[in-house]
Structures are given as structure tokens and as C-alpha cells.
From TrEMBL:
Keyword terms: Cell membrane, Membrane, Transmembrane, Transmembrane helix
Domain of life per record: Bacteria
Protein's job: Found in functional membrane microdomains (FMM) that may be equivalent to eukaryotic membrane rafts FMMs are highly dynamic and increase in number as cells age. Flotillins are thought to be important factors in membrane fluidity.
Family: Belongs to the flotillin-like FloA family.
Record carries keyword Transmembrane helix: yes
Record localization: Cell membrane; Membrane raft
Keyword check for Cell division: no
Membrane topology of the entry: Single-pass membrane protein
Membrane-spanning ranges: 32-54
Protein name: Flotillin-like protein FloA
Amino acid sequence: MPTPALLSTMTLLSAPLLPPLAQNVPQGRSILMIFIILMLMALVVAGAIFVFSYGKLWLQAMTSNAPVSPLTLVFMSLRQVSPRTIVDARIQAMQAGVSADSKGISTKKLEAHYLAGGNVPRVISAIIAAHRADIDLDFDRAAAIDLAGRDVLDAVKTSVYPKVIDCPDPEKSPRTTLSAVAKNGVEVKVRARVTVRTNLKQLIGGATEETIIARVGEGIITAIGSAKDEFEVVENPDRISKAVLDRGLDAQTAFEIVSIDIADIDIGENIGARLQVDQAEADTRKAQALAEKRRANAIAHEQEMKAEVALKRGDVLLAEADVPRAMAEAFRGGRLVIQDPDASGVK
């Protein structure tokens, strides 16, 4: 316990300090009140800005059972993400009955796909269409298909409603029919229609429609080429379809071939006969060329023989010219005696 002397001493020491403290208490309270007022004003301004910018969007998300926190909306704008696009996508999925947990639809994934340049509304529409058609398609696969440059919504629609591809495609080929030749050499012109549906599992990295058209065209030409004649093809056009389908032409493609239908068959020209005529004409020209060669050789040989005859005739003339000279030499040498049959002697 402090003594009375000590208490009196402490009272005397603290007496000069009481007036300043008494003066500082109202000043501290005023600063605190100003700070509180400024904070309240800042909160009111921030609230007004939020209500003006995001109030309607936030309320729409809350009432649609797709809540998004206010800070998330603000951070989306700071990350240059369209809050309207993300919220509308969440609301669209929720109202369509698509479970965000089962399909992997989260706000972060939606923002990441938006920042990657993807089409968020189209991806959500594709997921909803796949969900209604009972097709297994989650957000990650749909986003990958979209970022790969494929139309994911069109792919889902093609899976539900198969589309028909003309073979050959008149928009990409100047020819309207496929031309093949049977074993007997007769040309058969065929136009086919291929019904395909999208294979979502192989859409990324799978071959496109051009590959399907090329493979089907090759298969049709092979099937016609293995036929004995054109009548076999015309009588049983389904054998072409079966032969092509059995080859599994949709392997490693983004589509699954449902059916191949022969829309039109026409008989062309007899290419085999034309080739035989062309071959005969070629053989004739070849024989004529050989005959002309032999004739030219015979003419040349004839001219050589004529020259040889002229040469020999010259040799004969030279020999005949030597006879009088030899006779003269014989007379001069007395080796030649002429006998007169009328005379009795020899001269």
C-alpha cells in the first residue's frame, strides 16, 4: 500500500498533465469520427458503384440459383473477363438442368476458356444439347474441341442428327459422279450419298469430311473394278455399299459412317473396246512402220545391186578390151597362126 506522503507527491506531479490530456480527448474523438465518416462514405460510394455496375447481374445470378460472389465479379473485370458472359453461361447451364459438378463447369474454368479465346456460350450450348441427347460430354472435352477450331455445337448436332455427304462433293470437285471400270472394260458412273454422325471421342485429331469422301470414293471404285461386268453392278448396287462398309473407312476419323447409299448409276462408254481399238491402231501403225522400213531396205539393196551390176559390166568391158591387144601381141610374136581352109598351106 502506498503511503500518504507518496500519494501526495504523485498528485502534485500529475496535476500539470491533466489539462493537456483533457484537451486532447475531444480532438482524438473528432479525428476518429472523421475517419469513420470517410470509411462509411467510401463504402457507400463503392456500394453505389457495385450496384450500378454489377447489381443487376449479381441479383440475376442469385435469383437463378447460380450465385457469384461480388468480389468475383469485380476480379473478372480486373482480369479483362466479361462478367456478363460468364454469369449468363452459368445461368444457362443451371436453367437447363446441367449439373456443374458432373460436367466440370466452374467459374474458374469458364474464365480460363474465355481468356484462351474460346467461345463460352457455344461450349455451354453444346454441353446442354449433349445432355438433352444423353451424350457424355463434359466441359473439358467441349472446351478442347472448341479451342481446336472445331464447331463443338455443330458436332453435337451432327451426333444427334446425322448429316449426308455427297460423294463426290459437287462444291469441291468439278465432277458429279465417280467413274470406274468393270472387268469387261465397261465404264460405270456412280454417285453416292454417305450418312455420317460425329464421333466426339475422336473429334480432336480425327480426319475430316474430305478424308471420308476420298475413302468412300476409293472403296466404290475398287468394288466396281472387282465386278465381272456392268450388269452385275446395276443389278446389285447394294453390294457396293456392303463392300465399302466392311472396309471400316471411318477409322481414325471424326465421324462414324451410318450408311452408304448409291443415289445414281449410269453406264458409260466401253473403255475396254476403245482401248482395244486404240491398241489395234497402234499395232497397225507399228506394222506399217516396219513394212516401210523393210521396203526402204529393199529399195536400198536394189540400188546396191544395180551399182554392183554396173561395176561388173565395167569389168567385162575392160576384159573385152584386152582381147584385141592380146591377139595383136600374139601376131607380132608369131604365136598366132591363121589357117585358110581354101588354101593348101598355112600363111
